Amino acid sequence: VSVASPCHLQINGKSYSADLPPSVTLLDLLRERLDLTGTKKGCDHGQCGACTVLVDGKRVKSCLILAVSIPDAEVTTIEGLAPDGHLHPMQQAFIDRDAFQCGYCTPGQIMSAVALLEEGHVHTREEIREFMSGNLCRCGAYNGIIDAIEQVLAQHQQDRA
Ligand code: FES
Ligand code: FES
Predict the structure, then answer these.
(1) Alpha-carbon distance 64 to 27, whole Å?
(2) Distance in Å, CA 38 to ligand 1 centroid
(3) Ligand 1 mutation target, pool 26, 61, 78, most atoms within 8 A of CB
(4) I want to staple 147 with a disulfide (CB 3.0 to 4.6 A). Which of 97, 100, 106, 156 is the partner?
(5) pTM for this predicted structure
(6) Where in the chain is the domain with CATH 3.10.20.30?
(7) Which residues form the 2Fe-2S ferredoxin-type domain (predicted)?
(8) 99 pocket-lining for ligand 2 (C-beta < 6 Å)
(9) Does the beta carbon of 18 sit less than 6 angstroms from any atom of ligand 2?
(10) How are beta strands 74-76 and 5-11 bridged, if at all?
């Protein structure tokens, strides 16, 4: 017998309420119940970062979070970065810098990168590499990924100057 628990979230600016089995992860809620399949399932064990989304502005691995455990949280997925069809600067930078091959890791990389720049503690390429180390890329597109993030970081620094 599975017992359902109430789940209330804001997902990409829309309210979501349902009774869910407590074992449903945020990742499975997004992909399987809401058809938000931009968020990818790689390892399902917290090791690859493909499932990274923002919860209250912080990056999290959605395969490790139970949907019912974050009441009233604001969740942003890759779909939420370009709500009106205009690419987010980080998405554009990934295109400009050829920062993907198969693209499977890309939504997680982009969400992680957006949060990283919000966190505000990276200033160098080395720091970007270090703080992006939770997001793996089987295709080895790391140089392009770091280039893309560096490009947006430089824009941020210019805007602040
Ligand atoms: Fe979540 Fe790999 S699917 S970290
Ligand atoms: Fe293929 Fe990263 S682009 S896994």
Answers:
(1) 8
(2) 13
(3) 61
(4) 97
(5) 0.96
(6) 5-81
(7) 5-81
(8) no
(9) no
(10) parallel
89-160: CATH superfamily: [2Fe-2S]-binding domain (1.10.150.120)
For the beta carbon of residue 159, count every other beta carbon within 10 angstroms. Answer: 7
Ligand 2 touching residue 138 (CB < 6 A): yes
At 108 the three-state DSSP class reads: helix
Contacts of 30 (CB under 8 A, 6+ apart): 11, 36, 37, 39, 53, 62, 75, 77
Query: What is the CB-side half-sphere exposure of residue 66 using CA atoms within 13 A?
Result: 12
CA 9, 15, 19, 25 torsion-angle sign? negative
Mean pLDDT score of the chain:
96
CATH code of the region 5-81: 3.10.20.30
Taking the C-alpha atoms of residue 15 and residue 73, their distance in angstroms, rounded to an integer, is 10
Question: Which residue ranges have their beta carbon within 6 Å of ligand 1?
Answer: 41-44, 46-51, 61, 63
Distance 102 CA to ligand 2 centre (A): 5
CA 5–ligand 1 middle distance (angstroms): 24
Alpha-helical segments (H) within the chain: 26-28, 78-81, 89-96, 106-119, 125-131, 142-160
